[in-house]
């Protein structure tokens, strides 16, 4: 049923219980939950288990003495390698300006730097790895992006002994107030990223593969078992009547059960005398703005059967009113959850270990040849052998003991392990070629790249989905910052010189249109390919490590660390610097029209006006390349005449210094070769005999 307007606590409870599967046993969700748990068990190496009626698992019992459980966990290695391969796929993220104005360009630049800053502040690299690993195990990984008012840089307010606030105390007063404890910190608030397990995430079952962006997905929720003490600390008096959640009706708390599988218990069943030993199921429910909720959305927090909070959805003003982002391993058309890598490997892993266990059992039982014993000539109860070989009783003439032939297994049984290993490697896309085994004709970068691309073709869609999910997370981060940043903020980012820089901005400067620029065919490359590229750069003459010390150091780093990124970044850094300089000139052209000498100009050059340049450090050829390309662009033609003249002036300054340097270089070359027409001087003889 649907409710209009403000809900009572009873109506809110009924709404949450109707939408969210609180027991984990709903018919539409239980098959997913059982498969997720099976995947997780295989991932940690527990492929031999029995499900109990209470919903937990335990090891098999009453096992015959000869039975062997072989538990070589190859799934773990395959999954971690595939996860690392997908996580290594990287793209360049950027925010395009809404138009060609200076304000739009500045907003796009600030938004791009803010995304870099928030990624570092939220520890995105580690959380992205966890989300990708979850997608490999369960089929889809989830990210929850929310606003946390308790995070962010604190603002300190001072007050005197009477409790009166001090507006702007001096440094001496601040020190005294801090020693006396007469201050209070208020956090500015900051965005945060969490990585919940699929067991904890609930969604509108009408949604399909598009995820939470699907218009059919009207609600989403997260459930988790939380200590009662924590709930009371979070909500105060509202949580005074909260009681522990108990497993009295067969409810299945799978989202926390994973941590307690070794003992067969879950957190909610732990009985203790104090509240610190008891847990309650905490539900956070979000609803998209619809006509039924007056286009305000809805957010409800419920602990057990008690409503802690309810009201409008605070994220309705952002581009993601449902604060979740889904990352699939392999998309499954028509289904919300993706296909997991572990699910595809389970059958091969089980059959492989079963085959190996059979071989070991065969070795234990038949590894020693059978012995035939004359039962009429050996006393009953005599211990003939401690080995597990077969003993056969016989009658008739012959020796008392007769050793039988060594039994053998068919070759097909022995080959099962190799067959399943090959299948697992193919499914996980880890059959890449080794450089040492390749013919000499294709050991270069193109040959290696083609072979690796073929081997990793199965992971290319996964890598693309990972980058798309990263874009959605970035848009959520920027949307929350734009909506909740109340005052000017300062962010830190890494500049073109690989050093940290800071910039101040306002929420109105933020644009949420984050995009990723990728090459779909070359998402995943190994260090071997990167090293081969460096060698080909040297052969093509793009770098000269013999005569250029800087190139020699860059090549050394590239070969040592297996990445040509720094080698390429050094070549492109000057172009990025010039693009930044053009943006500054477009943002404030009048600043660079002041008539003053250019102190950085070379000796003897006339005074110039305009953006300052450094003749000793700048790569003038790279700067000219960027300015020439920009002057030919439609964006330049749309500028006003003053801005055009400033850019033209800057272009001519670089051109003059570059031409002077080229002229000096030509003079030096001519001096080494000699003047035209000179035949040179004959060498002098070393002694009288040579002279004669």
Short structural description:
This protein is an alpha+beta fold and 692 residues long. The protein has 20 helices and 20 strands.
What key phrases describe this protein's structure?
5-stranded antiparallel beta sheet, alpha+beta, 692 residues, 20 helices
Cα-atom Rg, whole angstroms?
A: 36 Å
Shape call? extended
Query: How are the strands of the largest sheet arranged?
Result: 9-10-11-12-13
Low-confidence stretches: 248-252, 262-273, 432-436, 595-608
Question: What oligomerization state is this entry in?
Answer: single chain
What share of residues is helical? 40-55%
Report mean pLDDT, rounded to a whole number.
76
| Helix vs. strand class | alpha+beta
Proportion in β-strands: 5-15%
Distance between the termini: 120 Å
Total helices: the number is 20
Biggest β-sheet description: 5 strands, antiparallel
Description:
- The chain is α+β, with helices and mostly antiparallel strands and 692 residues long.
- It has 20 helices and 20 strands.
- It has helices at 9-19, 30-43, 74-87, 102-121, 124-138, 171-180, 228-235, 254-257, 341-366, 411-414, 416-427, 445-455, 460-484, 527-540, 549-561, 565-587, 620-631, 634-637, 641-673, 688-691, and strands at residues 50-51, 57-58, 92-94, 140-148, 154-159, 165-166, 183-187, 190-194, 201-203, 219-227, 279-287, 298-303, 306-311, 324-328, 371-374, 391-394, 401-403, 489-494, 500-505, 515-517.
- Strands 9-10-11-12-13 form a 5-stranded antiparallel sheet.
- Strand 12 (298-303) and strand 13 form a beta hairpin.
- The radius of gyration is 36 Å and the shape is extended.
- The termini are far apart.
């Amino acid at each position: 049923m649907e409710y209009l307007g403000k809900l009572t606590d009873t109506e809110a409870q009924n709404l949450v219980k109707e939408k969210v599967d609180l027991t984990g046993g709903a018919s539409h969700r239980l098959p997913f939950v059982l498969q997720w748990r099976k995947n997780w068990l295989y991932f940690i190496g527990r492929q031999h288990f029995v499900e109990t009626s209470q919903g937990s698992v335990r090891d098999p019992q009453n096992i015959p003495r000869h039975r062997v459980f072989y538990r070589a966990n190859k799934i773990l290695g395959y999954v971690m390698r595939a996860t690392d391969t997908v996580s290594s796929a990287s793209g360049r993220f950027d925010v395009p300006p809404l138009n060609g104005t200076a304000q739009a360009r500045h907003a796009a630049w600030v938004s791009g730097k803010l995304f870099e800053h928030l990624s570092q502040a939220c520890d995105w690299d580690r959380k992205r790895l966890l989300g990708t690993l979850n997608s490999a195990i369960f089929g889809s990984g989830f990210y929850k992006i929310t606003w946390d008012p308790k995070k962010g840089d604190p603002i300190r307010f001072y007050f005197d002994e009477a409790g009166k606030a001090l507006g702007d105390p001096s440094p001496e007063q601040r020190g005294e107030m801090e020693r006396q404890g007469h201050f209070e910190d208020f956090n500015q608030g900051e965005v945060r990223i969490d990585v919940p397990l699929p067991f904890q995430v609930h969604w509108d079952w009408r949604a399909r593969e598009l995820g939470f962006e699907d218009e059919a997905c009207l609600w989403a929720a997260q459930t988790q078992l939380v200590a009662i003490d924590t709930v009371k600390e979070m909500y105060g008096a509202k949580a005074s009547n909260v009681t522990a959640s108990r497993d009295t009706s067969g409810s299945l708390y799978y989202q926390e059960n994973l941590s307690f599988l070794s003992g067969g218990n879950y957190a909610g069943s732990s009985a203790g005398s104090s509240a610190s030993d008891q847990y309650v199921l905490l539900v956070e429910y979000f609803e998209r703005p619809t006509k039924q909720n007056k286009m305000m959305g809805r957010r409800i927090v419920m602990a057990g059967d008690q409503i802690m909070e309810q009201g409008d959805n605070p994220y309705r003003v952002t581009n993601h009113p449902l604060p979740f982002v889904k990352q699939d391993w392999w998309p499954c058309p028509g289904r919300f959850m993706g296909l997991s890598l572990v699910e595809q490997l389970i059958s091969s892993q089980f059959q492989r270990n079963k085959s190996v266990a059979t071989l070991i059992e065969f070795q234990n039982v038949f590894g020693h040849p059978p012995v035939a014993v004359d039962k009429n000539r050996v006393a009953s109860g005599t211990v003939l052998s401690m080995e597990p070989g077969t003993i056969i009783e016989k009658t008739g003439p012959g020796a008392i003991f007769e050793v039988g032939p060594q039994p053998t297994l068919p070759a097909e049984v022995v080959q099962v392990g190799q067959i399943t290993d090959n299948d697992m490697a193919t499914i996980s896309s880890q059959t890449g070629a080794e450089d040492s085994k390749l013919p000499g004709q294709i050991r270069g970068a193109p040959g290696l790249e083609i072979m690796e691309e073929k081997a990793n073709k199965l992971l290319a869609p996964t890598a693309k989905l990972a980058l798309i999910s990263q874009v959605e997370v970035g848009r959520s981060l920027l949307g929350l910052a734009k909506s909740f940043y109340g005052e000017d903020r300062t962010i830190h980012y890494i500049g073109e010189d690989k050093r940290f820089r800071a910039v101040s901005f306002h929420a109105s400067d933020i644009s949420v249109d984050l995009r990723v620029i990728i090459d779909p065919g070359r998402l995943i490359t190994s260090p071997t390919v990167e090293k081969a590229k460096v060698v080909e750069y040297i052969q093509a003459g793009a770098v000269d490590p013999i005569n250029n010390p800087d190139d020699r150091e860059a090549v050394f780093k590239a070969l040592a660390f297996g990445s040509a990124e720094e080698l390429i970044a050094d070549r492109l850094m000057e172009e990025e610097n010039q693009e930044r300089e053009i943006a500054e000139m477009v943002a404030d052209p009048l600043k660079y029209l002041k008539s003053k000498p250019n102190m950085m100009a070379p000796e003897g050059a006339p005074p110039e006006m305009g953006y300052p340049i450094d003749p000793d450090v700048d790569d003038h050829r790279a700067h000219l390349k960027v300015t020439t390309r920009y002057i030919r662009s439609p964006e330049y033609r749309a500028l006003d005449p003053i801005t055009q003249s400033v850019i033209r002036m800057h272009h001519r300054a670089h051109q003059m210094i570059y031409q002077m340097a080229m002229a000096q270089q030509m003079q030096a070359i001519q001096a080494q070769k000699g003047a035209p027409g000179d035949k040179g001087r004959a060498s002098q003889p070393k002694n009288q005999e040579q002279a004669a």
